[in-house]
Amino acid sequence: MAQEDTKEYALVAARAIDEKKGTDIVIQDVSKLLKVTDYFVIATGANNRRVDAIAEEVEDKLREQCGIKPISREGKDEQEWILLDYGCIVVHIFQPASRDFYRLEQLWEEAPTIDVAVAGIEDPVYSERIKNLLERR
User: Fold this and answer.
1) How many other C-beta atoms lie within 10 A of the C-beta of residue 3?
2) How far is 18 from 122, CA to CA, in rounded Å?
3) Reported confidence tier of residue 137, pLDDT bands at 50, 70, 90
4) Which residue among 29, 50, 60, 126 is least crowded, i.e. fewest CB within 10 A of its CB?
5) Spatial distance between the Cα atoms of 117 and 96, rounded to a whole number of angstroms
6) Are the C-beta atoms of residues 94 and 44 closer than 8 Å to each other?
7) How far is CA 24 from the centre of its chain?
8) 112-133, pLDDT tens digit by residue?
9) Distance (Å, whole) CA 62 – CA 69
């Protein structure tokens, strides 16, 4: 699969997250750091219902627009952190406390980030921590 295809999948996921009012959307190109995936798409949902709705929207949009389904889906029962693994991209949807605790985007801070404007997201909502992190890059 071409790197351009996987980037488009990440952008579709980011748009789906934004459509369901997900915040703190970060797209990281981890292809040079990890052998198992090319992109992480990381986002926050305000509560368990929002996290679940975001995950459903991501699955729907990637299936409809890209013809792909997740290889696995973890965290559905707890809804503190849902992970959608598509092989070439991995989507992480956190509740705020879990996002702050794990700070996944900082674990892979060497990975370049893709501006969500490339996905057509015009007014992304960022917490102070994520905004500062993105500004440093």
Assistant:
1) 12
2) 10
3) confident
4) 60
5) 23
6) yes
7) 9
8) 999 999 999 999 999 999 999 8
9) 7
